[in-house]
Amino acid sequence: MAKFRRRTCIILSLFILFIFSLMMGLKMLRPNKAAFGDPFGLDLLPEVRQRTPHLVKNVDSQRSDKINSETNIKNLKSVEISVKPSKASEPYLEELPPLNYYLHIFYYSWYGNPQFDGKYIHWNHPILKHWDPRITKDYPQGKHNPPDDIGSSFYPELGSYSSRDPSVIETHMKQMYSASIGVLALSWYPPDSSDENGAPTDDLVPAILDKAHKYNLKSASTQSSVIQQRSLFTSNHIKIEMIKTCTKM
């Protein structure tokens, strides 16, 4: 009889251990985001049931932390999208020193490119020859080939620009103002006149003078005349044409 009781107790203990292992296994397989309540069978074990509210609270807190982190990331992304990249800082006009009207700069408006003029003008003028013919033959001949090879000792920051580009004129005047240059000495040809490598630019004078006036630059004119006869009549004719051009503004 005692042997039967002992065997019954052992079988019952093994059965309880099996049920407990099965319930713990089901609990491990239960997903964290499950919509149903406590795992099946935990209500039979009071001690384990007392710990389940803490487990539920931990899961809820982790879920809320994850939602908050996702919300913060979205907010950061929206802020990144709404913030525009800052442009290169330029000095404010009022922060610059006053203009020095004793400083003059020569300004040539005879440059052209295909975008505004249909072709390159003055950037492709003939290569200047050395005064000694014996040295000249050792160097390239012909014309410059823009946009990489231009008729200039230095390559401009604006590239092979056109003097007819309004943004170029604006930039040039702003650069003069930033350098405290007070007077613009404009190289001028009479109407329908130009040098052998250029094109008439008399129609550009009003636009250039308007931009110069915007930055309080004073203007002067240098007479780049191709007229061979330098008589008094020719000189007076050039002055009259210059006055006519300025009064068109």
Could you write a compact summary of the structure shown?
The protein is mostly helical. Helix content is 45%, strand content 9%. Helix 5 (166-178) packs parallel to helix 6.
Describe what this molecule looks like in 3D.
The structure is a single chain. This protein is mainly alpha-helical and 249 residues long. The protein is 45% helix and 9% strand. It has helices spanning 2-29, 46-82, 114-117, 133-136, 166-178, 205-214, 232-247, and strands at 100-107, 181-188, 218-223. It has a three-stranded parallel β-sheet, with helices on one face. α6 (205-214) links the parallel β2 and β3. α5 packs parallel to α6. It is elongated and about 135 Å long. Mean pLDDT is 74; it is low at 33-37, 76-89, 226-240 and 245-249.
Please summarize the sheet with the most strands: 3 strands, parallel
Number of strands: 3
What is the typical, i.e. mean, pLDDT? Answer: 74
| Backbone shape | elongated
Q: How many angstroms does the end-to-end distance come to?
A: 128 Å
The secondary-structure class comes to mainly alpha
